[in-house]
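Appendix B. Extra example for self-study. Work through it before the problem class; the solution is given directly after the inputs so you can check yourself.
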Amino acid sequence: GQQVMQIPQYQHVQEGEDFTTYCNSSTTLSNIQWYKQRPGGHPVFLIQLVKSGEVKKQKRLTFQFGEAKKNSSLHITATQTTDVGTYFCAGPSGNSNSGYALNFGKGTSLLVTP
Amino acid sequence: DAMVIQNPRYQVTQFGKPVTLSCSQTLNHNVMYWYQQKSSQAPKLLFHYYDKDFNNEADTPDNFQSRRPNTSFCFLDIRSPGLGDAAMYLCATSPRGRRDTDTQYFGPGTRLTVL
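Solution. Structure tokens for the complete assembly:
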């Protein structure tokens, strides 16, 4: 199935600094989704990107889908302690058995120090 | 308003003792998924139901089985849990929309401990 690679694995920032996580696929993705998982919690859907070159914003979060639809990024401006958690990107599984399933990247764990 | 409910939230079982985890949903979604998530790792899909159609991932061990008696409920059966099966088990649902744009709604998970 399609694989999505995500970097970095960990990121530790001071509160107020910016943060970016990157997601790459070897194949073209029809769409990419981003999820956030707080420590001890479950993944929560953040956003979906569908169009080539699409950019979407949610307050301090900016999501981007590459022109070739093979990469994506999530940028957080002026991080806050509430941003702590693991951010996962996910693309549709290419496995014919998986139907509507998603392939998750390994995630980027963000730690924000006050 | 709970939408995807998992019970129990914590489950302790003994090595080799069968265990069943349950998931229910109030969203009336047609697709239900079971994921296994180990510490500091991404969720790993075990299988999913598209309506009544069961779809097993190729690398899911035979030790893991699932049942979906109706739209609202889905169960994960682990026939003979091993120490390596200790993990968080996440249930998720998605609406019956276009294949390429379905998003998933996760339950809070069941943390399984195997002694």
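Self-check: The mean pLDDT of chain B is 91. If your reasoning did not lead you there, revisit section 3.
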